[in-house]
């Protein structure tokens, strides 16, 4: 496995190890440099009072997809979200939603990435753009970020 592939698989394990992700039926797939996809099952447990997914679900999926797309380019440090703009285009109810993240620019201290949410019919339901900054936290210091044994 290449160094990049090792990093990508370790990022996927890091996502799976985050305590917040135990609350959601979701999975991360790193597709390559600057590209990440999160599949997510929206259930009634995430609804607001009017019977559709609460905006926090949109933010979480968009932020995570953009974050992991950007973190594919930072192999040494954990990134932190410094800003995120989102646009809701359609409410979503129960079903599979996919967040597609894509790195846009920056490689040194600050990286910019975008993500879009697509529902099970292939229609875009939201999009966002985030700015991510390298932290002082070494990826290798995080218990979830472990290289594959092999």
Automatic annotation (TrEMBL):
<protein>
    <submittedName>
        <fullName>PaaI family thioesterase</fullName>
        <ecNumber>3.1.2.-</ecNumber>
    </submittedName>
</protein>
<keyword id="KW-0378">Hydrolase</keyword>
<dbReference type="InterPro" id="IPR029069">
    <property type="entry name" value="HotDog_dom_sf"/>
</dbReference>
<dbReference type="GO" id="GO:0016787">
    <property type="term" value="F:hydrolase activity"/>
</dbReference>
<dbReference type="InterPro" id="IPR003736">
    <property type="entry name" value="PAAI_dom"/>
</dbReference>
<feature type="domain" description="Thioesterase">
    <location>
        <begin position="51"/>
        <end position="124"/>
    </location>
</feature>
<dbReference type="Pfam" id="PF03061">
    <property type="entry name" value="4HBT"/>
</dbReference>
<dbReference type="InterPro" id="IPR006683">
    <property type="entry name" value="Thioestr_dom"/>
</dbReference>
């Amino acid at each position: 496995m290449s160094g990049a592939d090792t990093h990508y698989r370790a990022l996927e394990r890091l996502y799976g190890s985050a305590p917040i992700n135990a609350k959601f039926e979701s999975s991360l797939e790193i597709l390559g440099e600057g590209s990440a996809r999160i599949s997510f099952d929206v259930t009634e447990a995430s609804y607001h009072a009017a019977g559709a997914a609460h905006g926090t679900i949109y933010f979480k999926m968009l932020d995570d997809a953009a974050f992991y797309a950007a973190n594919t380019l930072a192999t040494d440090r954990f990134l932190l979200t410094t800003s995120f703009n989102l646009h809701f285009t359609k409410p979503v109810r129960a079903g599979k939603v996919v967040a597609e993240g894509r790195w846009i620019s920056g490689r040194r201290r600050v990286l910019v990435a975008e993500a879009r949410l697509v529902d099970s019919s292939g229609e875009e339901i939201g999009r966002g753009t985030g700015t991510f900054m390298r932290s002082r936290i070494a990826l290798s210091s995080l218990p979830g970020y472990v290289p594959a044994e092999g």
